[in-house]
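Before any further analysis, backbone shapes were mapped to integers, which produced the following:

***
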Amino acid sequence: MLRKEANELLTQTGPDEAMGKMFRRYWIPALLAEELPENDCPPVRVKLLSERLIAFRDSDGKYGLMDEFCAHRGVSLWFGRNEEGGLRCPYHGWKYDTNGQCIEVPSEPADSGFCEKIKLQAYPLVKIGDILWTYMGPEEDKPPYPEFEFATVPSEQTFSSKRFQECNWLQAMEGGIDSSHVSFLHSGSLNTDPLFKGARGNQYNLADKMPFFEVVKHEGGLYVGARRNAEDGKYYWRITPWVMPCFTMVPPRGDHPIHGHFWIPIDDETCWAWSFDYHPTRALSDVEMEAMEAGKGVHCEYVPGTYIPKANKTNDYLIDRQAQKEGRTYSGVEGIAIQDSSLQESMGPIVDRTKENLVSTDNGVIMARQMLRKAVTALRDKGVTPPGVDPAHHRTRSVSVVLPPEQAFEEACKKDLEAAPGKPHTSV
């Protein structure tokens, strides 16, 4: 469990909060590239880390992310006209470029210098893979661009999605480093979901519901190893990398794509659950792409025209009690992503961690909290750069492997856990 003060330290991410300031030291996903598909397309509202922003793409293809509200009278620039190299407020015609600089005020003489004094808060927005990333921290501390493998492989090898989730980022992220729930919550999907089924490791997950956890630190975060019994006295290991503050990569199954997540705070009570699938050595097949677009695997179906899941708390996640009773789905909720979000949202917007009773399978969660607390206080009190900022920390992979009992996964899988272009992934 956590004391109330520690829980608040880790869950509050506004501009003036210690965790908010730490999040702002990282490049984080802001939008899917598909949300700004062409030059001069309509602007998009964005809320990140409790800041209301507007994103747009100008006539030259430059991306901008800035304060949502016009500096004149506070009109939302979502209503703005995206034209001729800038976003123009429709109220009185004030116009801004992608850096937030005001470049035209029709009511003032052009030679008055008034425009030069007006600048909205703006953040860089860059396309890496199929995601637009932003950095919201001090300019002097801006790190190099992220180098997560899913975002750097050729476009035909990767697919990303996001979904709106109605809970704090931390309880969502903690689900991503908790491998023990797979044998229960996701058990009905392992042999039926097209992005999971057919892997030999599935049967180890289903047969052994009491995994042993071994958690190892690395420079950017943790390797969370979950060990289950395999045949001939060997062990089946699923090793999940966690890179601070909120990146996890799910161990692979057979030759299926590798998948993983980011959990990015919108505010303290909601977050974006980003999901990706990629294959390090081949293009995604038509069947795999169709499954991802249909919401299979770690993705979901949406309410049309939104990134809100079709199955959500307003309709009780379309729970099917008969399917639950018959074992077709363990919880009665369909789909890996919604199985997770339904239970994480059920805890409330911010779970009261003072009431928890943690056990040995929670070691990954416990150590992640400890690392986050140590990093956020070191940044706050001493200005120490947190782990996971360095792109070298991003070049990691998840692993599933069968090992003899005398082999420790940390040594046996050292090379397997390192990402490299064109290198096959280690999977069972």
Q: What stands out?
A: The mean pLDDT is 96. The two ends are 34 Å apart (CA to CA).
